[in-house]
Amino acid sequence: MVENYNDVKTVNTFEIKERSYFSILWGRFKKNKMAVISLYFIIFLIVVAIVGPLVSPYHYTMMDYTALYQTPNAKHWMGTDDGGRDLATLIIYGLRNALIVGFGAGLVEVFIGILIGAIAGYLGGQVDNILMRFVDIMFALPSFLLNLVLVVVLGRSLFTILLAIGLTSWAGMARLVRGQVLTVKQLEYIEAAKALGASNLTIILRYVIPNSVGPIAVALSFNIPGAMMMESGLSLIGLGVMPPMPSWGGLIAQGSRWMLSYPHMVLFPAGAFALTILAFTFVGDGLRDAFDPKQSD
Amino acid sequence: MEYLLEVKDLKTHFYTKKGVIKSVNGISYGLKRGQTLSIVGESGSGKSVSVLSIMRLLPTYAKVDGEIIFEGNNLLNYDDRKMKKIRGNHISMIFQDPMSSLNPTVKIGQQIMEPLLWHHKASKREARQKAIQMLTEVGIPSAKERFDQYPFEFSGGMRQRVMIAMALISEPELLIADEPTTSLDVTVQAQILQLIRKIQERRGTSVILITHNLAVATMVSDYIVVMYGGRIVEKATTKEFLKNPLHPYTLGLLNSTPILKSRKSLNPIPGQPPDLRKLKDVGCPFAKRCSKKMPRCEVENPPEIKVSNTHNVYCWLYV
Amino acid sequence: MLKYVVKRIGFIIIALFFVSLITFILIKSAPGNYVETERLLSQNVTDVTVPPEVKAAWEKAYHLDKPAWQQFLIFIANAARFEFGPSFQYPSTTIEKIIMRTFPISFRLAVMAIGLALIIGIPLGIIAAFKKDTIVDRIAILLSMIGTSLPNYVMAVFLIYILALELHLVPSIGWGEPKHYVLPVLSLAIGPIGSITRYMRASLVETLNREYIRVAWAKGGGFREVVLKHALRNSLIPLITVVGPQLAYLTVGTVFVENLFNIPGLGKFYATAAIYRDYPMVMGTTVFFATIVMLTNFIVDIIYGILDPRIRKRSMMEG
């Protein structure tokens, strides 16, 4: 069956190397117990966000005027809201939307960040100068301001919100990638690769990006919850996804109006939101420790 | 003759997670008024810890035992409040690295005045005058202007002069200098040592000098204590020390130090300084590196041999 | 220093120009017609056709009759004099008047929150640093981590529930009396408390290990002299660089809290303007907020430069 013994052998050693790198990372990550618990919690949330809408007997548009403001019970695990909608279902859809926006905005941000950072770092000179001044400006501004304007202009669908958040939060990523490019550029084997005729694109794809995976992952693990908070914040002030599509921020805003009589309406979404954000933050901490053991104390 | 400071069977042990580190393990010496005593040893010999024990500037996980008799009182019986009155007032200290010994955001003059102000020994105006006078005394030109400058405006040698001024402003009976010249240029080293010597003579201050450099010790001190692995291996007046060095470690140190005008070739001591965590309580700490090692050296503590009233050596060779 | 100031002001002007330009282009490319939107949304009239002369008057009032580049230049020229003209929602008043009336409320909230954060965060950080690696420290770190990661509106929900609904300490709703400030200010303060605690702890732990702190102990200083005068001083100066951006972001962060608590601050008006597509108001407030954020950061950096003697003196020497 084995036709070329040598080939098999090289493939094997390569795999062993890869695995050992990730097992080292995992080993460091595992030391942080909160991070591990949080990671499992996030996986659980993702499963809930996918499976929840399929198995729930309710839908976020289903109003039931015979069951308004119900506190948690057997039929409605987290109670109902002022429209008699099942709160658990609303929160699950809110979770799904938050995750979509969080990961989606993260993706947009990584894409733009790598693009701008790599171009600036690689070309250097005047291009770098102009791009980095632009990054400085983006950095000096609270991203919320441009976000709000973008949402007003682009509209308020899940996708446009995701896009708006991604478009306003890439500055840190661009700086990070540029720094990595500058570091990698100086390495000797890059000089060698260049001498052997590797193109700029090859070098960026083969060397810069793999080298930046760690810092990017760490940055992302803090920016994903950041994007979720932005989405919720926009919903909270009435600029998020259009109702009746639920969002955690919208649920919090709506629930807070009924807080005096029905605190469950705000405590469940706020609690779910807080736990989710904390889980991402703890995972971020764990990732930072794993990728850069020196930095943590 | 009266001792200003008598250290008796001093033990300083650090209780760390990785075990007990016996940095100082039963040392005794005496320092007379107006004299200079040098403690010589490699890094890790416990020489610095021994003086930090006197000042009680050790982390909480350090335990200090024995007696430290200063002007007739055992400092180890003092509580924090009483120790505070001793530090910077009766006993002052100069540290190794003048670059990091001064607070970068506080004016030089302010830092020099502090011992006087903190011990309520002078009003702010008097303290200022005294500080400027001290700056002049340690050889800093245009002291008045320098008073209002910040540490980054001073060179390393100048900063060590500032440290000396700061240590001596309250006219302490005892000055402890922990490797005061190690991080300085060679030419500046000599100046600083001369300065310490000069001021000491003028004021009659007693000095403990911590150094790894035997040449420095023989140049400035009246009495020399050689430490190794947390214990004293030999102590003697400088004269006796130079005339009749006995302990194999002392001999090794002398052979590896360019001293006086001898044209002997330099021979470093073979081996590594000991790991204090692995050092046993019994036996001579130097045994592992000693060329004249006998079987009993590893299993029995070396006896104290009195060569003279002022010369002791701890070694089985001289029984 | 002067060179630096000029450079920074230049950057701020350029940045503000870009912000205005981007905002302007975005809003110009928004779907729908200014006047149509205003008519539809702000007055809830859907089926009445506006007479052409009224429409023309409106367009004239908002400079919509001129080409886009002229509109932009008019906006810039007016914005530089803090004039933004009338808004769509409130045609009878000007945007700058709305800002002048509502921004002080937001700013007061932010300043109070930062003040509270300093009062709580600094001692908490000091305690954590001194109790390093104990349970007190762990709890402080965990709390500050939760405080910094959760958005202020989630904090607000929990605070309302605990302080207003369960403990009945403060009212959950209402505006106008001092007691109504409690919950919004607390919600805004928790994030900065976390950051300040973390910063103070890390900075103090590092500073307390510095050589000049040991020197200060050796000079006879106690907690007051060593920790409060020497260590804290060096931690507090850079604290400004932590607090400055916090204050800047907090002025914008009030948007959420104001909406949740129904406080008539600029943030509330900003959000409402965005919901109703009140373009002039959105544009004016965006530029205003951007200016405030950048000015705050700029002022903070200047103060930092003045307080740190190393930066101040060096920049003076460079001219």
CATH class identity of chain A: Mainly Alpha
- Most residues in contact: chain pair: A-C, 43 and 47 residues
CA-based gyration radius of chain C:
24 Å
Strand-pairing-aware structural class of chain C: mainly alpha
- Based on DSSP secondary structure assignment, what is the total number of beta strands of chain A? 0
Question: What is the name of the CATH topology of chain A?
Answer: MetI-like fold
Main sheet record of chain C: none
Annotated CATH topology of the largest domain in chain C: MetI-like fold
Helix and strand sequence of chain C: HHHHHHHHHHHHH
Class based on secondary structure composition and strand pairing of chain A = mainly alpha
Characterization of the model:
- The complex is a heterotrimer of chains A (297), B (319) and C (319).
- With 297 residues, chain A is mainly alpha-helical.
- Helices cover 75% and strands 0% of the residues of chain A.
- Chain B is of the alpha/beta class and 319 residues long.
- Chain B has helices at 47-55, 80-86, 108-118, 124-137, 143-146, 156-168, 186-203, 214-220, 238-243, 248-255, and strands spanning 3-16, 19-32, 36-40, 62-70, 73-74, 91-94, 174-178, 206-211, 223-228, 231-237, 304-308, 311-314.
- Chain B has an 8-stranded mixed sheet, with helices on both faces. In chain B, strands 2-1-4-5 form a 4-stranded antiparallel sheet, with helices on one face.
- In chain C, 78% of the residues lie in helices and 0% in strands.
- Chain C contains 13 helices and no strands.
- Chain C has helices at residues 2-28, 34-43, 52-61, 68-80, 95-130, 135-149, 152-166, 182-208, 211-218, 223-261, 266-275, 279-307, 309-318.
- The model of chain C has no long low-confidence stretch (mean pLDDT 85).
- Chains in contact: A-C, B-C.
- Chains A and C meet through helix 4, helix 5, helix 9, helix 10 and helix 11 of A and helix 1, helix 6, helix 7, helix 10 and helix 11 of C.
